[in-house]
Amino acid sequence: MSNVGGFMKADKEKKVLVMGGLIVDKYIVTDKYPLKGEDVLITDSFNRVGGCTINVASTLNNLGVDAYPVSTIGGDENGNIIEKYLLEANINKNCVIVEKDKNTGYCLVILDGTSERTFMTYKGCEEEFSCNLINRDLLKEIKFVYLTGYYLLGSFAAEILSFIKDIKELGASIMFDPGPLVDEIQSEILQLALDLCDIFIPNVNEIEKVKIKLNITQEFGELAEKNKIQYVIIKNGSKGVTAYKGNKKYERLAYSVKAIDTTGAGDSFAAGCIYGFLNEMEFEEILNVGSACGALNTTFIGPNGKYGIENIERLMKEENDNA
Predict the structure, then answer these.
(1) Where is the Carbohydrate kinase PfkB domain (predicted)?
(2) d(C-alpha 165, C-alpha 137), whole Å
(3) Which residues contact 87 (CB under 8 A, 6 or more apart)?
(4) Of 167-176, 269-278, 298-307, which range is least confident?
(5) What's the CATH architecture for 3-20+52-72+129-322?
(6) In a 3-state reduction of DSSP, which class is residue 295?
């Protein structure tokens, strides 16, 4: 690996599987979110390829990491949009299979004047999983796996976790992001995902749902140590993150930027952390890089903004200069 400014250039031999399914985000932009039964004007509408998988893969791609999104997509218009995007963005599609007679999922994203967004999701064939999605030769090169809880909502959850167990035994590190629908994951599936992960990265609302779902009463730092989770990173939007490495607690405030759209910010944060872990950074520096990625992503409309290591370094320098 070679230095780029203060950062390490990504090692292409350290490949990442990004598991969670590919969908299309259908944006509706309005000045305010309507009350029930209310009518408001739409100021803009457009499509973006979205979902946690592509959001994480796109950020890793920005940082020069060789990322492989894992998904089944349909042969419909939404599937065609995804295929075109992967080609144009130069993102690996070796682990993406097209099922011509099936439909691709999509998400309606309502973005209001406060930069907040509300989601309504239609699940398609992206929830389907087979080990055949991943080439056997590629498995030996995977150093890191990102898994979103969205992928554990369907009937393929047990098969997905069996695959995760196998690839972990080959030496890959596992990051588990439970997602906002974590309380709809079956309890035994959720517990197994926690048992398998090395890094647990919920947001502040999701961690409370996990506690309720699994009847957890301990502080999560203590629980993580008991379950052999090496790191717990709790995202709290514009308030920053609280993280644990064993029993040691870390706090990281969010970077100050002019946010336009918060869609995908948490996913970009996760990808920045993966970059840090791959490059064996100190934990505080990992949180810095993740926070910078999450903040930069909010300065673009849509979940997949284009920025690079130099933008991260500039944001960090600006914070240090203003300290």
Answers:
(1) 14-300
(2) 17
(3) 93
(4) 298-307
(5) 3-Layer(aba) Sandwich (3.40)
(6) helix
Tokens in use for 210? 């996990």
Strands of the chain, DSSP E: 3-4, 7-8, 15-19, 23-30, 42-50, 67-74, 96-99, 106-111, 117-122, 142-148, 173-177, 199-200, 231-235, 241-245, 248-252
pTM of the model: 0.89
Region of residue 299 (left: phi > 0; alpha: psi -120 to 50; beta: else): alpha
pLDDT in tens, 86-98: 999 999 999 999 9
Q: 323 to each of 25, 256, 312, 318, 320, how far by Cα in Å?
A: 38, 12, 17, 9, 5
Tally the residues of the chain.
323
Q: Is 193 strand, coil or helix?
A: helix
Over residues 156-165, the pLDDT tens digits come to: 999 999 999 9
